[in-house]
From TrEMBL:
Ligand binding (S-adenosyl-L-methionine): G78, F83, A135, E136, R148
Protein name: Ribosomal RNA small subunit methyltransferase G
Main location as per UniProt: cytoplasm
Protein family: Belongs to the methyltransferase superfamily. RNA methyltransferase RsmG family.
Record organism: Asticcacaulis endophyticus
Protein location: Cytoplasm
EC class name: transferase
Length: 216
């Protein structure tokens, strides 16, 4: 979907099962500008993907809320440029009020990325906390642990194990090698899983992982 003409914000929103408020589009547009400016010096995302921001990055991230609409507390491992975590935080900021205040933990071990993420969180007044540490060191109770392009699934599950132990489910954005990654992961882990087609790339998959246990 990122090939051809760039997607507009309105076209992006049509793919989502929830209403994207105008205020959320405004924040996402501000994030787009910050990302474009910083990417010139930090190489946060592939330069060729910048013109396709709304499909390649926003829709790719936002589709997670199609699958987990009731999740309020998220942890994004290897948050990097802010996908999916910053997009989720923006959408949750402008979601309908609920009994639980939404929050996204943006976790990355690279300090310069955390500085960038902290600037974005402050500028957009997001319900998010940036944590500069390795994912496996973090002890948090969240509804969902997620990641995009952080590591192959066998390693990613190791990074996320602590979150699963505290009750989280996993919703991960994976590429065309997801089947081989799942087969490899089953050698070290016991879990239930489902795959869903990605809205942003026909080769991609959204993977739901639950009931994770290490194979002893």
């Amino acid at each position: 979907m990122s090939d051809g003409l760039p997607m507009t914000p309105e076209q992006m929103a049509l793919h989502l099962v929830f209403h994207v408020k105008h205020e959320a589009i405004e924040d996402l547009t501000r994030f787009q500008q910050v990302l474009a400016d910083k990417n010139a010096v930090m190489n946060l995302v592939g330069p060729a993907t910048v013109p396709h921001y709304w499909s390649r990055h926003v829709l790719d991230s936002a589709q997670l809320l199609n699958h987990a609409p009731d999740a309020k507390i998220w942890a994004d491992l290897g948050a990097g440029a802010g996908f999916p975590g910053v997009v989720l935080a923006i959408l949750l900021k402008h979601a309908e009020p609920s009994d639980i205040t939404p929050h996204v933990y943006l976790i990355d071990s690279l300090t310069k990325r955390c500085v960038f993420l902290s600037e974005v969180v402050k500028a957009l007044d997001l319900p998010a906390t940036v944590i500069n540490d390795r994912a496996e060191n973090i002890k948090l109770e969240v509804d969902v642990v997620t990641a995009r392009a952080m590591a192959p699934l066998p390693k990613l599950l190791g990074f996320a194990e602590g979150f699963f132990k505290r009750g989280a489910q996993g919703w991960f954005l994976k590429g065309e090698n997801v089947d081989s990654e799942l087969m490899e992961a089953e050698k070290a882990w016991q879990f239930a899983s489902n795959k869903y087609s990605s809205l942003s790339d026909p080769r991609g998959r959204v993977v739901h992982i639950r009931s994770l246990k290490h194979v002893r």
